[in-house]
Amino acid sequence: MDKQLFDTQRNHQNIFYRKLSKRTLLTNWLAILTANLLSPNLEAKTVKKETNKEKNTSRNIHEYYMRLAIKEGKNVPKYPFGAVIVNRLTGEIVSKGYNQSTHNPILHGEIVAINNCAKHKIKILWSELDLYSTAEPCPMCQSAIEWAGIKNVYYGSSIPFLQGLKWEQINIRAQEVSDRTPFRNTKIIGGLLEGECNKLFLTA
Ligand SMILES: [Zn+2]
């Protein structure tokens, strides 16, 4: 190869690499810019999606346990107060109970569930437990829940709703009992499957 041809080829090569280099840089820069512009949105979208999924899963789990409480309540259609105690950490259904006040006036569903729990479980970590009840716990039951140290309470029908249906109810809300229990920090969540629970009491 003569020198002139060699030089010409090298020049073309250099121009090509310079062009390639510029193009590569531009492409890389665009890629970085696009990634930076898009990624926060993508990330936010993913997080939002996961949160909604978690919420749905969480709601489904709570509804599942409440359906078991409803099933308990249906054992006594005239007094459809059913309760289920669940280990929040393992998902184990620890005990169940339904209203037996026709035999003993203080045997409300929650009390029966707590008694069953104490009877059958040798070692109980009460703070790991949550209680699901078709109706808002009365002051007696909420006090028992506080003494036991059950962490979270989920209920369907509220005390005012039951009073509206002329059910005998002591006029103290579960939240008030909880607020007046300084040695616990029980969380009370009402309105879980409220429609289905209300239906139980409407048709009792
Ligand atoms: Zn009660």
TrEMBL record:
Protein name in UniProt: Nucleoside deaminase
Q: Which UniProt keywords apply?
A: Hydrolase, Metal-binding, Zinc
Could you tell me which residue ranges the CMP/dCMP-type deaminase domain spans?
60-168
- This protein's source sits in the domain of life called Bacteria
Q: What EC number(s) does this enzyme carry?
A: 3.5.4.33
Q: Name one GO molecular function term.
A: tRNA-specific adenosine-34 deaminase activity
InterPro entries (UniProt xref)? APOBEC/CMP_deaminase_Zn-bd (IPR016192), CMP_dCMP_dom (IPR002125), Cytidine_deaminase-like (IPR016193)
Read off the Pfam families from this record. Answer: dCMP_cyt_deam_1
